[in-house]
Amino acid sequence: MECIFCKISKGEIKSRKIYENKNFFSIFDINPVSEGHSLVISKEHFENFLDLRNNLGDDLIECVKETISIIKKEKPFEGFNLVNNNSEVAGQIVKHFHLHIIPRRKGEKLKSHLF
């Protein structure tokens, strides 16, 4: 059985993609911890960061930076966190590589389920 992120990647589950390149795409998190909380997801199934091929680094960085730029225009913020949980003990729920972009605003308190 395929994971939910594979289904989104293949278009089997509709989603609003924020940004997309050859190897990654980004979407808004369905359970955000802040306004604009989004996910950068690998199109190919990799269980976690350690499974990513080394040659995907440029595409990953591009997708993260472009997503941040787009979100910042739509929902301004002063800073951000990048969070990547690897394995269940570290809080990884979906066993498909994804990176959380969490916009941060001055004075905002987060109740995070990510750590």
Helix coverage percent: 10-25%
Q: What's the CATH superfamily, by name?
A: HIT-like
CATH architecture: 2-Layer Sandwich
Computed CA radius of gyration, to the nearest angstrom: 14 Å
What summary fits the major beta sheet?
5 strands, antiparallel
CATH top level assignment:
Alpha Beta
User: What's the mean pLDDT score?
Assistant: 94
Oligomer: single chain
Low-pLDDT residue intervals, each spanning 5 or more residues: none
**What is the tally of helical segments?**
2
Overall structural class, as computed from helix and strand content, comes to alpha+beta
The count of strands amounts to 5
Specify the overall morphology.
globular
Query: How large is the share of residues in beta strands?
Result: 15-25%
Explain this structure to me?
- By secondary structure, the protein is α+β, with helices and mostly antiparallel strands.
- It has a single domain, classed as HIT-like (HIT family, subunit A).
- The protein contains 2 helices and 5 strands.
- It has helices at residues 4-9, 57-74; strands spanning 17-20, 24-28, 38-42, 79-83, 98-104.
- A 5-stranded antiparallel sheet has the order 1-2-3-5-4, with helices on one face.
- The chain is globular, with a radius of gyration of 14 Å.
- The two termini are 27 Å apart.
